[in-house]
Amino acid sequence: MKQRELGKSGLMVSEMGLGTMSFGPKIDEKESFKRMDEYVAAGGNFFDTANIYGRSPSGNSDAGDSERIIGRWLKETGKRGEIVLASKVGFPYPGIEYGTTKKQIKEECVKTLQKLGTDYLDLYYLHTDDFDTPMEESLGALQELIKEGKVRHIGASNFSAWRLERSLAICRENGWEPFCCVQQRHSYLRPKQESVFGQQKYVELEMKEFIKDTGMTLIAYCPLIKGAYGKKNVGVPGQYISEDSRIRLKVLEEISKESGISPIQLVYYWLMNSSPSAIPLIAPSTWEQFQEAVGTLDVNASKYMQRMDEAADGNLGPDFRTPMYF
Ligand SMILES: NC(=O)c1ccc[n+]([C@@H]2O[C@H](COP(=O)([O-])OP(=O)(O)OC[C@H]3O[C@@H](n4cnc5c(N)ncnc54)[C@H](OP(=O)(O)O)[C@@H]3O)[C@@H](O)[C@H]2O)c1
Q1: Residues with Cβ within 8 Å of residue 68, at least 6 apart in sequence
Q2: Helix count and strand count (H, E) for the chain
Q3: Residue 226: predicted pLDDT
Q4: Does the structural domain 3-228+264-299 have CATH classification 3.30.420.130?
Q5: Domain ranges, ordered by start, for the chain
Q6: Among 97-106, 225-234, 268-277, which stretch is predicted with the lowest mean pLDDT?
Q7: Rounded to an integer, what distance in angstroms lies between the CA atom of residue 257 and that of residue 269?
């Protein structure tokens, strides 16, 4: 697996990250260990977790949650030094409210470090953009964690472009380390305009332009929209049901038949080779799914990129076929 720098941070991560949200309740500890072993054996180094992942509904911290499972794997394998470890703060769980106040960030970071059995995180994200806490307070807390050696670099997740621009201005004014990456919902299918996913934010045109302009790295979560492209045909969530998606799925199917590359691999390939390119967080439940995901690294779908990019664009019928839209 090749590596890429996260923004201008100097931190090198693999071109596919390992999502660990399902470690615990959905993927038990034994299987989770297998996914981490397989991913590292394939050359991967970038683990993505969060303080809320894999918790039991009661929030019982003794349940096998994602951070604890990763912590036990790191202890057993002794591989902490080889892994770029990312976690997040901001979403609620029983006993902890939503938000990114200074108190919340600093206390949750200590808990996360304890669970992971490490004294530093390579990357710490604000999991959400908390409009009720001044951005200066949240960013200031992250800078303190950097000074204390608990965190090396910082990232943002579920932010809009204008808020990221504001964060850059605050960091410039204060001489602070800025966010090096932004983690958003991102896939080949595009949600309908104005779609809402709770606090989650998806990548739209403005965010793409912002990323190209600033050089922040884009990390794509829910790259498969939880199996929407798979053989199991779990279905496309309502926010994605549109003529645009129908055409894009049809194009994927056509290219897959022509090329022998699976629709899932085409989606990963497209994410990794579009402009701006993204680091997809793969989250395979099984060895077969893992093989399919990393198999993307062996395919070349460059000759299909334009067709995938342009699928459904401008396909608005004869009345709209004018060179300019006034
Ligand atoms: N920042 C945020 O707010 C945020 C939000 C969500 C997720 N995340 C991160 O992003 C990671 C990925 O998110 P996600 O789990 O929603 O990703 P996803 O890729 O959209 O969905 C993963 C699911 O797709 C299916 N799948 C995976 N590989 C497959 C394959 N090769 N063939 C067929 N089906 C396949 C599996 O479902 P089955 O087991 O049912 O087959 C798997 O559980 C998470 O683990 C987490 O680290 C971040």
Answers
A1: 115, 116
A2: 10, 10
A3: 83
A4: no
A5: 3-228+264-299
A6: 225-234
A7: 16
- Which residues touch 5 (CB under 8 Å, ≥6 apart)? 11, 12, 217
| Residue ranges lining ligand 1, Cβ < 6 Å | 19-22, 48, 127, 157-158, 183, 200, 221-227, 230, 264, 281, 283-285, 289, 292-293
Q: What is residue 91's predicted lDDT score, i.e. its pLDDT?
A: 96
Amino acid identity of residue 72, one-letter, is R
* 16, 18, 20, 21, best to mutate for ligand 1 pocket (most atoms within 8 Å of CB): 21
* Contact criterion met (CB below 8 Å) for 14 and 46: yes
Stretch 113-118: mean pLDDT: 97
Nearest ligand 1 atom to alpha carbon 184? 1
Structure-token match 């996360």, residue found: 112
On the 0-12 / 13-18 / 19+ scale of CB atoms within 10 A, 68 is buried
Single-letter residue type at 190: R
Average confidence (pLDDT) over 296-316? 89
Tokens 């994602």 locate to 66
CA distance 223 to 184: 10
Atom of ligand 1 nearest to the CA of 20: 45
**Closest CA relative to residue 86, chosen from 127, 54, 58:** 127
pLDDT tens for 208-235 read: 999 999 999 999 999 999 888 976 556 7
Average pLDDT, the chain: 93
Which residue from 117, 18, 124 is spatially nearest to 68, judged by alpha carbons?
117
Q: pLDDT tens digits for 63-72? A: 559 999 999 9
Q: What is the pTM of this model?
A: 0.95
State how far the Cα of 284 lies from the Cα of 170, in Å rounded to an integer.
38
